[in-house]
């Protein structure tokens, strides 16, 4: 027995025929690429010759925790292990491909070769000033130098002695 409002066999009415749109996750934002001012744009420090941008400055802004393993491996291949860590790479197709794979996690800036810094230089730039200058080191309250202070004094003494010997030694011809 067939009802009058029943559909023929094979046709099914779905409950999703309402006017509501299905949920779609927002698209990820692309990596932010910051460019140095081009020669056509006037700048306060413009000179007659501007070095071409030959390197990427890549900074990890978001962690890869909870993401598929390929993201973590790509970040390791770029040399990024911690958040806010910065590395420098020359422009090349393989580096550009790696950047595109993790573009949601990093910030990329094109820079000239003169702006490339070593990890030691980056750390020195971040280090704050002491606010004072060490003029002289004094022994502990018991009258003895610590081991580190003693080694430092010994090295300074050796450097002074070596410098004096070099100055006193006759020039060889």
Q: Would you kindly provide a written description of the structure presented here, covering whatever features stand out?
A:
Helix content is 28%, strand content 13%. The chain has 173 residues and is α+β, with helices and mostly antiparallel strands. The protein has a domain at 59-111: Ribosomal protein L30/L7 (Ribosomal Protein L30, Chain: A, 2-Layer Sandwich), CATH 3.30.1390. It has a four-stranded mixed beta sheet with strand order 1-4-2-3, with no helix packed on it. The longest helix is centred in the C-terminal third of the chain and has 22 residues, at 147-168. The radius of gyration is 32 Å and the shape is elongated. The mean pLDDT is 80.
What descriptive keywords fit this protein?
elongated, 4 strands, Ribosomal Protein L30, Chain: A, 173 residues, single chain, 4 helices, alpha+beta
Coarse shape: elongated
Strand order of the largest sheet: 1-4-2-3
SSE string = EEHEHEHH
The CATH architecture of the domain at 59-111: 2-Layer Sandwich
Overall mean pLDDT stands at: 80
Strand portion: 5-15%
> What would you report as the Rg, rounded to the nearest angstrom?
32 Å
DSSP strand tally: 4
Fraction of residues in helices?
25-40%
The CATH superfamily name of the domain at 59-111 is Ribosomal protein L30/L7
Outline the fold blueprint:
Blueprint: E1 32-34, E2 53-60, H1 69-78, E3 86-90, H2 93-101, E4 106-112, H3 119-126, H4 147-168
Parallel strand pairs: 1-4
Antiparallel strand pairs: 2-3, 2-4
Helix pairs in contact: 1-2
């Amino acid at each position: 027995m067939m009802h009058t409002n029943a559909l023929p066999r094979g046709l099914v009415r779905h409950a999703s025929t309402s006017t509501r749109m299905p949920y779609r996750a927002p698209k990820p934002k692309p990596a932010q690429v910051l460019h140095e001012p081009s020669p056509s744009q006037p700048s306060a420090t413009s000179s007659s010759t501007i070095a071409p941008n030959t390197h990427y400055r890549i900074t990890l802004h978001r962690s890869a925790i909870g993401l598929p393993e390929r993201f973590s491996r790509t970040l390791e291949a770029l040399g990024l292990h911690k958040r806010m860590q910065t590395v420098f790479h020359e422009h090349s197709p393989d580096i550009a491909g790696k950047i595109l794979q993790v573009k949601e996690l990093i910030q990329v800036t094109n820079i000239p070769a003169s702006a490339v810094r070593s990890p030691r230089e980056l750390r020195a730039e971040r280090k704050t000033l002491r606010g004072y200058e060490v003029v002289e080191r004094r022994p502990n309250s018991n009258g003895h130098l610590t081991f580190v202070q003693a080694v430092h004094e010994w090295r300074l003494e050796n450097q002074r002695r070596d410098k004096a010997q070099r100055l006193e030694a006759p020039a060889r011809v």
